[in-house]
Amino acid sequence: MSEVLPAALRAPSLVLTKPVARVPGPAVLPGGRIYEPKWDGFRASVTVVDAGVTFWSRQGKDLTRYFPDVAAAAREHIPAGCVIDGEALVWTGHRLDFNALQTRLTTARRALPALAREHPPSFAAFDFLSAAGHDTRALALKDRRALLEELAAGWAPPLNLSPATSDYATALEWFEDFPPTGIEGLVIKGADQPYEVGVRQWLKVKYRENIDVVCAAVIGRRDSPYALVVGLPMFGRLWIVGSTTALRRSASRHARAHPRPDHPWPEEISPTVIDGFTSRKDPIRLTRV
After folding, report:
1. pTM across the whole model
2. Would residue 61 show up in a list of annotated catalytic residues for this protein?
3. Which of the listed residues 154, 173, 206 is the one where a domain comes to its end?
4. E strands in the chain
Protein backbone atom coordinates (compact mmCIF):
# COMPACT_ATOMS: atom_id res chain seq x y z
CA MET A 1 0.00 0.00 0.00
CA SER A 2 1.45 3.37 -1.03
CA GLU A 3 1.48 6.00 1.70
CA VAL A 4 1.13 9.59 0.44
CA LEU A 5 2.12 12.41 2.77
CA PRO A 6 0.23 15.71 3.05
CA ALA A 7 2.09 18.40 1.11
CA ALA A 8 3.00 20.32 4.28
CA LEU A 9 4.87 17.29 5.64
CA ARG A 10 7.00 16.39 2.63
CA ALA A 11 9.65 18.88 3.81
CA PRO A 12 8.13 19.87 7.15
CA SER A 13 8.61 23.11 9.03
CA LEU A 14 9.55 22.36 12.62
CA VAL A 15 8.42 23.77 15.96
CA LEU A 16 10.82 26.30 17.47
CA THR A 17 11.88 26.91 21.05
CA LYS A 18 11.95 29.98 23.29
CA PRO A 19 14.85 30.44 25.73
CA VAL A 20 14.15 30.79 29.45
CA ALA A 21 16.56 31.52 32.29
CA ARG A 22 15.82 28.55 34.56
CA VAL A 23 14.17 25.15 34.59
CA PRO A 24 10.43 25.86 34.96
CA GLY A 25 8.42 24.07 37.60
CA PRO A 26 4.78 22.93 37.68
CA ALA A 27 1.85 24.55 35.85
CA VAL A 28 3.92 26.33 33.22
CA LEU A 29 2.63 24.59 30.09
CA PRO A 30 -0.74 22.98 29.28
CA GLY A 31 -1.27 19.45 30.55
CA GLY A 32 1.87 19.37 32.67
CA ARG A 33 5.50 19.38 31.61
CA ILE A 34 7.61 16.93 29.67
CA TYR A 35 11.36 17.45 29.97
CA GLU A 36 13.82 16.26 27.34
CA PRO A 37 17.56 16.70 26.79
CA LYS A 38 18.63 19.64 24.64
CA TRP A 39 20.96 17.90 22.23
CA ASP A 40 24.03 19.51 20.66
CA GLY A 41 23.44 18.35 17.12
CA PHE A 42 21.58 19.16 13.91
CA ARG A 43 17.81 19.50 14.29
CA ALA A 44 16.34 17.38 11.52
CA SER A 45 13.27 15.47 10.42
CA VAL A 46 13.16 12.04 8.80
CA THR A 47 10.54 11.62 6.07
CA VAL A 48 9.83 8.09 4.89
CA VAL A 49 7.78 7.34 1.77
CA ASP A 50 7.67 4.37 -0.60
CA ALA A 51 10.20 6.07 -2.87
CA GLY A 52 12.78 6.43 -0.10
CA VAL A 53 13.95 8.43 2.90
CA THR A 54 14.73 12.14 3.11
CA PHE A 55 16.64 13.75 5.95
CA TRP A 56 15.63 17.43 6.20
CA SER A 57 17.41 20.15 8.20
CA ARG A 58 15.42 22.72 10.16
CA GLN A 59 16.10 25.21 7.34
CA GLY A 60 14.66 22.81 4.73
CA LYS A 61 18.01 21.61 3.36
CA ASP A 62 18.19 18.01 2.15
CA LEU A 63 20.89 16.33 4.27
CA THR A 64 20.23 12.77 3.12
CA ARG A 65 23.49 12.30 1.26
CA TYR A 66 25.46 13.31 4.37
CA PHE A 67 23.69 10.69 6.52
CA PRO A 68 23.28 7.60 4.31
CA ASP A 69 23.68 5.35 7.37
CA VAL A 70 20.77 7.00 9.20
CA ALA A 71 18.67 6.96 6.02
CA ALA A 72 19.33 3.23 5.57
CA ALA A 73 18.28 2.50 9.15
CA ALA A 74 15.15 4.61 8.74
CA ARG A 75 14.22 2.75 5.56
CA GLU A 76 14.50 -0.56 7.44
CA HIS A 77 12.76 0.35 10.70
CA ILE A 78 10.29 3.17 9.93
CA PRO A 79 7.19 2.46 7.81
CA ALA A 80 6.32 4.57 4.77
CA GLY A 81 4.10 7.53 5.54
CA CYS A 82 5.97 8.51 8.73
CA VAL A 83 7.61 11.83 9.54
CA ILE A 84 9.71 12.08 12.70
CA ASP A 85 11.25 15.17 14.31
CA GLY A 86 14.56 14.75 16.10
CA GLU A 87 18.25 15.53 16.21
CA ALA A 88 21.24 14.17 14.30
CA LEU A 89 24.18 13.52 16.63
CA VAL A 90 27.71 12.16 16.69
CA TRP A 91 29.27 10.72 19.84
CA THR A 92 33.00 10.42 20.39
CA GLY A 93 33.39 8.16 23.39
CA HIS A 94 30.84 9.31 25.95
CA ARG A 95 30.57 12.90 24.71
CA LEU A 96 28.72 14.58 21.85
CA ASP A 97 31.09 15.75 19.14
CA PHE A 98 29.61 18.65 17.18
CA ASN A 99 32.81 19.19 15.21
CA ALA A 100 32.71 15.61 13.91
CA LEU A 101 29.05 16.16 13.02
CA GLN A 102 29.85 19.32 11.06
CA THR A 103 32.63 17.51 9.22
CA ARG A 104 29.97 15.44 7.43
CA LEU A 105 28.79 18.56 5.58
CA THR A 106 32.21 19.13 4.05
CA THR A 107 33.20 15.52 3.34
CA ALA A 108 33.16 14.12 -0.19
CA ARG A 109 30.64 11.35 -0.83
CA ARG A 110 33.33 8.73 -1.41
CA ALA A 111 34.94 9.54 1.97
CA LEU A 112 31.70 9.31 3.98
CA PRO A 113 31.84 5.54 4.64
CA ALA A 114 35.25 5.86 6.32
CA LEU A 115 34.05 8.87 8.32
CA ALA A 116 30.94 6.96 9.41
CA ARG A 117 33.09 4.10 10.69
CA GLU A 118 35.28 6.49 12.66
CA HIS A 119 32.44 8.71 13.92
CA PRO A 120 29.14 6.80 13.60
CA PRO A 121 26.01 8.96 13.67
CA SER A 122 22.97 8.77 15.88
CA PHE A 123 19.43 10.08 15.51
CA ALA A 124 17.47 11.00 18.65
CA ALA A 125 13.75 11.04 17.83
CA PHE A 126 11.42 13.15 19.98
CA ASP A 127 8.22 13.81 18.00
CA PHE A 128 5.89 12.06 15.55
CA LEU A 129 4.39 14.30 12.84
CA SER A 130 2.83 11.73 10.54
CA ALA A 131 1.83 8.08 10.90
CA ALA A 132 0.76 5.97 7.90
CA GLY A 133 0.35 9.16 5.88
CA HIS A 134 -1.96 10.78 8.45
CA ASP A 135 -0.98 14.15 9.91
CA THR A 136 -0.64 13.70 13.70
CA ARG A 137 0.37 17.27 14.56
CA ALA A 138 -3.05 18.14 15.97
CA LEU A 139 -2.74 15.41 18.61
CA ALA A 140 -1.54 16.26 22.10
CA LEU A 141 2.17 15.72 22.67
CA LYS A 142 1.50 12.90 25.15
CA ASP A 143 -0.41 11.02 22.43
CA ARG A 144 2.25 11.67 19.78
CA ARG A 145 4.86 10.49 22.27
CA ALA A 146 2.92 7.28 22.90
CA LEU A 147 2.85 6.57 19.15
CA LEU A 148 6.58 7.29 18.90
CA GLU A 149 7.41 5.00 21.83
CA GLU A 150 5.43 2.18 20.21
CA LEU A 151 7.25 2.65 16.91
CA ALA A 152 10.69 2.93 18.55
CA ALA A 153 10.29 -0.28 20.55
CA GLY A 154 11.93 -2.23 17.74
CA TRP A 155 14.70 0.24 16.94
CA ALA A 156 18.44 -0.20 17.25
CA PRO A 157 21.24 2.37 16.79
CA PRO A 158 21.63 4.65 14.95
CA LEU A 159 17.89 5.22 15.60
CA ASN A 160 17.15 6.15 19.21
CA LEU A 161 14.21 7.40 21.23
CA SER A 162 15.11 10.64 23.02
CA PRO A 163 14.61 10.30 26.81
CA ALA A 164 11.73 12.19 28.41
CA THR A 165 10.43 12.64 31.94
CA SER A 166 7.55 14.46 33.60
CA ASP A 167 9.25 14.39 37.01
CA TYR A 168 10.65 17.77 38.04
CA ALA A 169 13.29 16.32 40.40
CA THR A 170 14.57 14.01 37.67
CA ALA A 171 14.72 16.93 35.24
CA LEU A 172 16.84 18.93 37.68
CA GLU A 173 19.21 15.96 38.04
CA TRP A 174 19.51 15.74 34.25
CA PHE A 175 20.21 19.46 34.04
CA GLU A 176 23.14 19.16 36.44
CA ASP A 177 24.46 15.74 35.36
CA PHE A 178 24.22 15.84 31.55
CA PRO A 179 26.49 18.79 30.57
CA PRO A 180 29.76 16.78 30.82
CA THR A 181 28.39 14.62 27.98
CA GLY A 182 27.91 17.68 25.76
CA ILE A 183 24.13 17.86 26.25
CA GLU A 184 23.35 21.58 26.45
CA GLY A 185 20.41 21.63 28.86
CA LEU A 186 16.70 20.83 28.71
CA VAL A 187 13.75 21.36 26.39
CA ILE A 188 10.40 21.71 28.17
CA LYS A 189 7.10 20.90 26.43
CA GLY A 190 3.43 20.84 27.39
CA ALA A 191 1.90 17.36 27.47
CA ASP A 192 -1.36 18.65 25.95
CA GLN A 193 0.25 20.81 23.26
CA PRO A 194 -0.36 20.11 19.57
CA TYR A 195 2.55 20.60 17.18
CA GLU A 196 2.13 24.23 16.06
CA VAL A 197 4.51 25.28 13.30
CA GLY A 198 5.67 28.89 13.40
CA VAL A 199 5.10 29.18 17.16
CA ARG A 200 7.91 29.10 19.72
CA GLN A 201 5.82 26.80 21.88
CA TRP A 202 8.61 24.80 23.51
CA LEU A 203 10.91 26.24 26.15
CA LYS A 204 14.66 25.66 26.35
CA VAL A 205 17.04 26.28 29.19
CA LYS A 206 20.78 26.01 28.62
CA TYR A 207 23.38 25.04 31.13
CA ARG A 208 25.70 28.04 31.10
CA GLU A 209 29.44 27.75 31.21
CA ASN A 210 31.26 31.00 30.48
CA ILE A 211 34.13 30.94 28.00
CA ASP A 212 36.16 34.03 27.14
CA VAL A 213 36.39 34.72 23.42
CA VAL A 214 38.09 37.45 21.40
CA CYS A 215 36.22 39.87 19.19
CA ALA A 216 38.77 39.87 16.39
CA ALA A 217 36.66 41.14 13.48
CA VAL A 218 33.40 42.86 12.69
CA ILE A 219 31.06 42.75 9.73
CA GLY A 220 30.50 46.26 8.48
CA ARG A 221 32.15 49.48 9.61
CA ARG A 222 34.46 49.63 12.62
CA ASP A 223 32.57 52.59 14.12
CA SER A 224 29.10 51.01 13.70
CA PRO A 225 29.41 47.27 12.98
CA TYR A 226 26.55 45.09 11.81
CA ALA A 227 27.83 42.03 13.73
CA LEU A 228 30.83 40.82 15.71
CA VAL A 229 32.97 37.83 14.68
CA VAL A 230 34.67 36.09 17.59
CA GLY A 231 37.60 33.75 17.96
CA LEU A 232 38.88 31.28 20.54
CA PRO A 233 42.63 30.95 21.18
CA MET A 234 43.62 27.26 21.02
CA PHE A 235 46.82 25.43 20.13
CA GLY A 236 48.66 28.61 19.18
CA ARG A 237 45.94 29.82 16.79
CA LEU A 238 42.94 32.12 16.98
CA TRP A 239 40.08 30.01 15.61
CA ILE A 240 36.92 31.62 14.25
CA VAL A 241 34.10 30.16 16.34
CA GLY A 242 31.07 32.21 15.35
CA SER A 243 29.40 35.55 15.00
CA THR A 244 26.66 37.47 16.73
CA THR A 245 23.31 38.09 15.17
CA ALA A 246 22.68 41.60 13.86
CA LEU A 247 23.49 44.13 16.60
CA ARG A 248 20.87 46.51 17.81
CA ARG A 249 21.62 50.15 17.03
CA SER A 250 22.58 50.98 20.63
CA ALA A 251 24.93 47.98 20.83
CA SER A 252 26.47 48.85 17.47
CA ARG A 253 27.27 52.38 18.63
CA HIS A 254 29.11 51.00 21.67
CA ALA A 255 31.06 48.41 19.68
CA ARG A 256 33.60 50.74 18.13
CA ALA A 257 36.75 48.82 17.28
CA HIS A 258 40.34 49.63 16.36
CA PRO A 259 42.16 48.40 13.24
CA ARG A 260 44.77 45.66 13.61
CA PRO A 261 47.24 45.48 10.69
CA ASP A 262 49.13 42.31 11.78
CA HIS A 263 46.02 40.15 11.88
CA PRO A 264 45.98 36.31 11.58
CA TRP A 265 42.60 36.14 9.82
CA PRO A 266 41.96 36.62 6.08
CA GLU A 267 40.04 39.60 4.77
CA GLU A 268 37.31 37.33 3.38
CA ILE A 269 35.86 34.04 4.62
CA SER A 270 33.31 31.57 3.33
CA PRO A 271 29.86 32.03 4.91
CA THR A 272 29.96 28.39 6.03
CA VAL A 273 32.82 29.18 8.43
CA ILE A 274 30.32 30.84 10.78
CA ASP A 275 27.10 29.14 9.64
CA GLY A 276 27.27 25.56 8.38
CA PHE A 277 23.68 25.64 7.07
CA THR A 278 23.68 28.95 5.22
CA SER A 279 22.67 29.02 1.55
CA ARG A 280 24.68 32.18 1.01
CA LYS A 281 27.43 31.76 -1.60
CA ASP A 282 29.24 35.10 -1.72
CA PRO A 283 32.16 35.52 0.73
CA ILE A 284 31.87 37.55 3.91
CA ARG A 285 34.27 40.46 4.14
CA LEU A 286 35.81 40.89 7.58
CA THR A 287 36.85 44.19 9.07
CA ARG A 288 39.75 42.94 11.14
CA VAL A 289 40.12 44.61 14.55
Report:
1. 0.73
2. no
3. 206
4. 17-19, 33-38, 42-49, 52-57, 82-92, 95-96, 121-131, 134-135, 159-161, 185-190, 202-206, 214-220, 225-234, 237-243, 268-269, 284-285, 287-288
